[in-house]
């Protein structure tokens, strides 16, 4: 694919950087070696004000708006000085209300400026912040806040209704944004609390690089979501990858489309751009391909980080629509979260004359590890090569490195600064990522070519990836069987041309219930409103019996998947079952 000049990109020549880079050098950007002062919020905000950039735009907010094509998009901007003032106030409110260093402060807000103020304010005060995706329903909120014993919550008058207060004994104080008469009685009005405080003392809590900073819950193939805890040291990783992979420069307008409840929305939606002093675009509302085109054009976005499902939906509007929008400001596009089809890369090249740079990482890895760089060749279908300072290997079952072009377990040598600190309250789970000691094992399957380009081949477990969102089948199954009509459930990811995968459930009905479209719609609605919309099965199939292992009675999702794909389910001696349709 076409290259841009190496001189123009921040990273320059990849192979040269691989030879010379080490993580210690990346630390020299920070001042803590002289001052001993560590805090992510300081590096993202206060430092820029101190260094004379207080007037520089930091956040461009695009509220929900009408679809009237005549309107110009109206935005509201905040400078770094505004951010300092706001986060100082949020931090002071939390401290005044008794927040101690390391307390878990959850933020459950839509993508509004307040969501960003609250996250950075909590970090400034020394909290471990837990941002929640705005589509979470009661069960998802409960599992997360209960697990790490959240003490504080910042939310709004709409979302407060999804917080099961009675089941959260550790939750002491809830601050609510929005009209006061809509607030539940045992909560505090956030705006009033903010107006009341006076920021006298420096509200920043100085911390250690190893102190906890942010917790993101993520799903695996078994059990409830796990709390992945990241430490302040991750900023070393975020800063350098923001500079070299996002290629951020002073005058960029950067748009990461993810919500801060997901790790992409925090690591690369907040930290990486602000550490690099680049302004971010914050949009609300649901995905709409036309609206996104408008946002790119009218806000003159220069660097855009999004996901394959969005690119595929935009691509499906066709070439004619693409030519209606002027994207000449857009100079760098990146993708993450699910396999990026070569067709998308080729389409963007042909129609937009722009390259799409795939990147690979995970909630647990904290930052980008496998990357396509602006200065290097793109091989469509490949996620790119290891970031400088990162060693990627493909391992066999014994943990031995495989040669090029052999599919195996995608692993990374441990020790980079963004790697999670632990899994909350679950040391055993944390250790399970390191079965061969020195390697972090991702759960993905992949191969490398002779030049080190990595090609994704699938997951080694039952985890589902729908539109780039990671969904644990166990969570969905558990919710399904809470429905009165469902006796048993097995959930898989079914390949889908637009969304990558969709959630498909196989269910067995309880005695007395009969199969009907309205029953299935009701079951789907049940999961959607109790767990989360993105986790609700798009397809439900009623069967007579689920395939289970004979001894332990575990649901064999592998067999369900084979049935779905009309493939041979392999060795079935462990169970004795054939697919029985319900009549
Ligand atoms: C899983 C991690 C932190 C990024 C957002 C998702 C899949 C991620 C790619 C890619 C193919 C990808 C993997 C990975 N994935 N990036 N470029 N190509 N698959 O983070 O929710 O923790 O999910 O997403 O399967 O293990 P996550």
Outline the secondary-structure elements.
Elements (H helix, E strand, L loop, with lengths): L13 H7 L2 H5 L4 H4 L4 H14 L3 E6 L13 E4 H17 L7 E5 L4 H12 L3 E5 L5 H10 L4 E5 L16 E5 L10 E2 H7 L15 E7 L7 E6 L2 H11 L9 E3 L6 H13 L4 E4 L5 H10 L4 E4 L1 H8 L3 H6 L7 E4 L6 H11 L3 E5 L9 E2 L13 E2 L5 E4 L12 E6 L8 E2 L3 H6 L6 E10 L5 E6 L4 E3 L2 E3 L1 H8 L5 E11 L3 E10 L7 H14 L8 E4 L14 H9 L18
Parallel strand pairs: 1-11, 3-4, 3-5, 5-6, 6-7, 10-12, 12-13, 13-14, 25-26
Antiparallel strand pairs: 1-2, 8-9, 9-19, 14-15, 15-16, 17-18, 18-20, 20-21, 22-23, 24-25
Bound molecules: 5'-O-[(S)-butoxy(hydroxy)phosphoryl]adenosine.
In short:
The protein is α/β, with parallel strands linked by helices and 583 residues long. Helix 14 links the parallel strand 13 and strand 14. The mean pLDDT is 94.
Describe the protein's architecture and organization.
The protein has 583 residues and is α/β, with parallel strands linked by helices. The protein is 30% helix and 22% strand. It is built from 18 helices and 26 strands. It has a 6-stranded mixed sheet. Helix 4 (40-53) packs across helix 5 (80-96) and helix 4 packs parallel to helix 10. The radius of gyration is 24 Å and the shape is globular. It binds 5'-O-[(S)-butoxy(hydroxy)phosphoryl]adenosine. 5'-O-[(S)-butoxy(hydroxy)phosphoryl]adenosine binds next to helix 10, strand 14, strand 20 and strand 21.
């Amino acid at each position: 694919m076409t290259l841009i000049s190496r001189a123009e990109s921040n990273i320059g020549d990849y192979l040269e950087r691989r030879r010379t880079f080490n993580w210690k050098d990346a630390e020299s950007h920070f001042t803590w070696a002289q001052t001993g002062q560590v805090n992510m919020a300081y590096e993202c905000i206060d430092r820029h004000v101190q260094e004379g950039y207080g007037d520089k735009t930091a956040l461009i907010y695009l509220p929900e708006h009408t679809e009237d094509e005549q309107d110009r998009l109206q935005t509201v901007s905040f400078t770094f000085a505004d951010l300092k003032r706001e986060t100082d106030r949020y931090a002071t409110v939390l401290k005044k209300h008794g927040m101690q260093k390391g307390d878990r402060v959850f933020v459950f807000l839509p993508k509004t400026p307040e969501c960003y103020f609250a996250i950075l304010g909590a970090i400034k005060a020394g909290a471990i912040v837990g941002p929640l995706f705005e589509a979470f329903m009661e069960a998802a909120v409960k599992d997360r806040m209960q697990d790490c014993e959240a003490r504080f919550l910042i939310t709004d008058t709409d979302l407060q209704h999804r917080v099961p207060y009675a089941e959260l004994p550790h939750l002491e104080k809830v601050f609510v944004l929005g009209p006061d008469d809509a607030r539940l009685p045992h909560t505090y009005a956030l705006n009033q609390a903010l107006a009341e405080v006076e920021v006298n003392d420096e509200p920043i809590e100085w911390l250690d690089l190893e102190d906890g900073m942010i917790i993101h819950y993520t799903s695996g193939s078994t059990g409830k979501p796990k709390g992945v805890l990241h430490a302040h040291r991750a900023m070393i990783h975020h800063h350098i990858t923001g500079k070299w992979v996002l290629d951020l420069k002073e005058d960029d307008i950067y748009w990461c489309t993810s919500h801060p409840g997901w790790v992409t929305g925090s690591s690369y939606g907040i930290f990486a751009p602000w550490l690099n002093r680049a302004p971010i675009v914050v949009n609300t509302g649901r995905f709409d391909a036309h609206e996104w085109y408008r946002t790119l054009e009218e806000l003159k976005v220069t660097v855009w980080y999004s996901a394959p499902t969005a690119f595929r939906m935009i691509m499906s509007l066709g070439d004619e629509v693409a030519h209606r929008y002027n994207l000449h400001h857009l100079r760098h596009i990146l993708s993450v979260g699910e396999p990026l089809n070569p067709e998308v890369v080729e389409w963007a090249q042909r129609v937009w004359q722009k390259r799409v740079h795939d990147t690979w990482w995970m909630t647990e890895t904290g930052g980008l590890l496998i990357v396509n760089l602006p200065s290097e060749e793109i091989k469509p279908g490949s996620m790119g090569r290891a970031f400088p300072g990162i060693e990627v290997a493909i391992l066999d079952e014994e943990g031995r490195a495989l040669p090029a072009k052999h599919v195996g377990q995608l692993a990374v040598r441990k020790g980079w600064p963004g790697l999670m600190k632990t899994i909350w309250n679950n040391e055993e789970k944390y250790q399970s990522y390191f079965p061969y000691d020195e390697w972090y094992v991702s759960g993905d399957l992949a191969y490398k070519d002779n030049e080190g380009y990595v090609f994704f081949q699938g997951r080694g477990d039952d985890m589902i990836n729908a539109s780039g969102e990671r969904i644990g089948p166990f969570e969905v199954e558990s919710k399904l069987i809470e429905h009165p009509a469902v006796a048993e459930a097995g959930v898989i990811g079914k390949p889908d041309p637009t969304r990558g995968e969709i959630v498909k459930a196989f269910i067995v009905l309880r005695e007395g219930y009969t199969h009907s479209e309205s029953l299935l719609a009701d079951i789907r609605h049940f999961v959607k409103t109790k767990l989360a919309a993105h986790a609700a099965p798009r397809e439900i199939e009623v069967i007579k019996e689920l395939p289970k292992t004979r001894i332990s009675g575990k649901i064999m999702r592998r067999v369900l998947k084979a049935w779905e794909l009309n493939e041979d389910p392999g060795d079935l001696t462990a169970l004795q079952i054939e697919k029985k349709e319900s009549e």
